[in-house]
Amino acid sequence: TTEIGASWGKAQVLAGPYLRLPLKSMAVINGATTTQQVIILPETLDAKVNVETDERHRGIYTALLYAGKATIGGTFVMPDLKAIGIDTANILWDQVTLEYSLSDTRGIPTPLNVTWNGADRELHPSTASSIATSGQVIATSITLDHTAATGSVIGRHNITIAMRGSETLEVAPLGKTTTLSMQSTWPHPSFQGSILPDRHNTSQSGFDAVWRSGHFARSYGQAFIVTDEITTRITNSSFGVSFKDPVDLYRQLERSTKYVVLVVLLTFALFFTLEVISKRRIHAMQYLLVGFALLVFYLMLIAYSELLRFDLSYVISAFLTTLLVTLYMRFVTGTIKHALLVGGLLSALFVFIYTLLQAETYSLMIGSVGMFIAVAGLMYSTRKIDWHEYS
């Protein structure tokens, strides 16, 4: 799944927009002399994101990909640069850039233009370091009024970004006030990150959610000099959605193999009860052969799932295994009645396991109720047996 996602677009964290102001002064960072840079974050940040998901397959593996469109707008105001120790005369005002950071810019399929103070400007890939860890930067040069008073509006921006990615989509709350609205056709969102949405609605047709965040919810200010610590804090402040299928094929196969011991033990318990009731001995080798048949069920399930849907693969594997064990028990017990009883109960067991695999939230409760019924059935069917005869 990682390989499929890497070819389309990785998990995305969007951080932007922000202004980068290079300084005339230099600093030594990690042994290298570099230009110091001041970052100014927006006063307001409003983002509306629409996401459509798509599944891509490779063998038994399924990758959940998405294509989204983010419309972002807001304003910038002139911060108090002296409060963070910056002399405005030390700023290279002719080299100011408006930037966006995205985890994987391969997920941007079309050229981008941003509207800055009413004028369209084309964004280009940049070699500048991202203000978020592992991010890639797209930027455009702009002109700022360096004589603007502290607190006055210095820019308004608006952009629509088409992006692709996989697994997760998060947004960093760079605005002093940040509002994120997200809609998607995916019915199983997992909200994650530094904060949860203020409100959300989820149905089989998709979900919508709204986040609101203020600057008190993060550990960085509106203007700062870039450091590794700040980039880590910005990354840790992001929030969004994980697009993962709670019962996808790989998880179903993984979970089904965890029930192999349960299936074998319940089947052996059924055989032993049948052996006691019918007073016909079943040899240990016959137990072993039936156990092998049940193990082959899981092998067939994995093999068929590479070519067919999981539910169809499960039905075929369960049917063949049940048929094999039923026919074998016909010759072991010598009666059709006992063989059909084994076949019926084994079929019920496979249905029970399939129900557990499909359950998204209540699998533990369903499993405990099913085990209670199974134990109660064994106790009831053996209630009149004198176990001292077998000691």
Explain what this protein looks like in three dimensions.
It is a single chain. The protein has helices at 2-8, 228-236, 249-258, 260-278, 284-305, 310-333, 336-358, 363-381, and strands spanning 12-29, 32-40, 44-58, 61-77, 97-102, 113-116, 119-122, 124-126, 136-141, 153-166, 168-171, 177-184, 189-193, 199-203, 206-214, 223-225, 239-243. By secondary structure, the protein is an alpha+beta fold. Strands 1, 2, 5, 8, 9, 11, 13, 16 and 17 form a 9-stranded mixed beta sheet that branches. An 8-stranded mixed beta sheet has the order 7-6-10-4-3-12-15-14. A hairpin with a 2-residue loop joins strand 3 (44-58) and strand 4 (61-77). The longest helix has 24 residues, at 310-333.
**Which ranges are low-confidence, i.e. pLDDT below 50, for 5 or more consecutive residues?**
none
Q: Got a strand count?
A: 17
The chain-level mean pLDDT equals 88
Major sheet attributes: 9 strands, mixed
Number of structural domains:
2
How widely separated are the two ends?
54 Å
Question: Level of helix content?
Answer: 25-40%
In short:
The protein has 391 residues and is of the alpha+beta class. The protein is 34% helix and 35% strand.
Q: Tags for this entry?
A:
single chain; 391 residues; alpha+beta; 2 domains; nine-stranded mixed beta sheet; eight-stranded mixed beta sheet; 8 helices; 17 strands; 34% helix
SSE order and pairing:
Layout: H1 2-8, E1 12-29, E2 32-40, E3 44-58, E4 61-77, E5 97-102, E6 113-116, E7 119-122, E8 124-126, E9 136-141, E10 153-166, E11 168-171, E12 177-184, E13 189-193, E14 199-203, E15 206-214, E16 223-225, H2 228-236, E17 239-243, H3 249-258, H4 260-278, H5 284-305, H6 310-333, H7 336-358, H8 363-381
Parallel strand pairs: 1-11, 3-12
Antiparallel strand pairs: 1-2, 1-5, 2-16, 3-4, 4-10, 5-9, 6-7, 6-10, 8-9, 11-17, 12-15, 13-17, 14-15
Helix pairs in contact: 3-5, 4-5, 4-7, 5-6, 6-7, 7-8
